[in-house]
Design goal:
Elements (H helix, E strand, L loop, with lengths): L2 H14 L13 H10 L2 E6 L8 H9 L7 E7 L12 H4 L4 E5 L8 H8 L7 E5 L7 H12 L3 E5 L24 H12 L3 E6 L1 E3 L7 H10 L5 E4 L5 E2 L1 E3 H9 L5 H7 L1 E4 L5 E2 H11 L9 E4 L1 H4 L16 H7 L8 H14 L10 H9 L31
Parallel strand pairs: 1-2, 1-4, 2-3, 4-5, 5-6, 6-11, 7-10, 8-13
Antiparallel strand pairs: 9-12
Helix pairs in contact: 3-9, 5-6, 6-7, 8-11
Length: about 400
């Protein structure tokens, strides 16, 4: 074989390879490659110090651990949380593979640079769930700005259905007007203006096995176990959405099932589709506590006269449904029901000392006893919160006709 033939053969082999063999390399630098490696499937959960949403970060981390898209999880935890209480005290035992980073999320001077330093100079995240921010200053802005730098694939925000201004349509759809000045709405707007792939969920009343806020359902048990009336506004037929935190976490994670549809829709109501009335919650709680139906004393009162008083829910209908999430994201719905969950909830209520805690019943007395045309000085509340009346100087009222 001649030298010319050999050269032609070699040239043919070289030309048959990718054009990039001769062109300048377009491959990412080592730094960019390192960034891609670190951010691939990395999830960041920003978690508040507690309250109604306090358990969501914990439950979301547990849910994401079973998702094939996610290979590492970091919780950016507000350092103001109480590590002696749930769910924070269960981080090390229940989600040991999740990295926990503490930070002062109330720091209004926090910047993207300082947040990046807290998380690690090389840390980037492809998926972010923010369950803490309520405004566009400080940590809230820093998280958004970092997500923009990271080129985050999905930025999922836990907002609130509480900013809805109902217009008579129930369940309230995602198109329901919102309070423009609400912090969550301003946060949504900033994320959109920044160009983040925002998906915003609007949950309502949440309960769960490791919750650190139990006010809603405790209100019912507090009265039932003491054989006291339950002052419920209106006629008690108003509907409410009470959702298990594990179902909320499942809904928040469902964005991974259809990322494009999630970003396109952007806003989703977040809650169970098993709606119950205020009166129904009373009877369900009574059943869980082993209290006979005839011993459930519901006192419907005039909300225009007494307002919300100590009642845990709105005075009127105020509920959402997860229809859009089911339709767009393929969410299959809740796996928990309030009626079943109340059994373990009641056990937890007793363990927390709910039946023996000291409480004031003044407002209940005003509604149940004091509002009546006539009543005895003694009342059903005296055993727990006696009201002392000095009648020594009471005189008969003379009315001139």
């Amino acid at each position: 074989m001649s030298k010319n033939t050999n050269f032609a053969a070699i040239l043919a082999v070289l030309l048959s390879g990718p054009a990039s063999a001769f062109a300048p390399s377009n491959r990412p630098s080592h730094a960019a490659a390192r960034k891609s490696s670190l951010s691939m499937s990395a999830a960041l959960i920003v978690q508040n110090k507690g309250g109604g949403h306090g358990e969501l970060g914990f439950q979301l981390a547990k849910t994401l651990q079973g998702n094939s898209k996610i290979t590492s999880i970091t919780i950016l935890q507000d350092e103001a949380c109480n590590d002696e209480k749930e769910p924070f005290k269960s981080y090390s035992t229940d989600i040991p593979d999740v990295k926990i980073v503490k930070a002062n999320l109330a720091d209004e001077s926090m910047t993207a640079e300082s947040l990046q330093s807290i998380l690690g100079s090389d840390a980037t995240f492809e998926y972010v769930w923010d369950n803490a921010s309520k405004k566009t200053e400080g940590a809230g802005k820093a998280i958004c700005d970092c997500a923009k730098t990271w080129d985050t694939k999905l930025f999922t925000y836990v907002s609130s259905a509480g900013m809805y201004q109902p217009n008579g349509v129930f369940p309230m759809p995602e198109t329901t007007p919102v309070k423009e000045s609400a912090g969550q709405n301003l946060f949504d707007n900033y994320a959109v203006e920044l160009g983040l792939p925002l998906v915003s969920f609007r949950p309502q009343y949440i309960y769960g096995p490791k919750s650190n806020k139990n006010d809603y359902i405790d209100w019912y048990f507090d009265r039932l176990v003491r054989e006291l009336p339950l002052p419920i506004p209106g006629d008690g037929t108003q509907k409410v959405s009470l959702t298990n935190s594990e179902d909320v976490a499942s809904l928040l994670a469902s964005v991974l099932d259809n990322e494009e549809a999630a970003i396109e829709q952007r806003f989703f109501n977040c809650g169970t589709d098993q709606l119950v009335s205020y009166d129904e919650v009373a009877h369900m709680c009574a059943k869980a506590a082993g209290i006979e139906p005839e011993k459930v004393m519901i006192e419907h009162y005039d909300s225009e006269m007494f307002g919300k008083a100590n009642f845990p829910f709105r005075l009127t209908d105020f509920y959402v449904a997860p229809d859009t999430a089911k339709d767009k994201l393929g969410w299959t719905g809740p796996t928990h029901s309030l009626s079943d969950d109340l059994t373990w909830y009641y056990d937890g209520y007793k363990a927390r000392g709910g039946a023996s805690k000291k409480m004031s019943w003044t407002k209940d007395w005003e509604i149940v006893v004091g509002s009546k045309t006539s009543y005895e000085v003694g009342s059903i509340y005296d055993k727990y919160d006696p009201i002392v009346f000095d009648t020594s100087n009471v005189q008969a009222l003379n009315v001139e006709e």
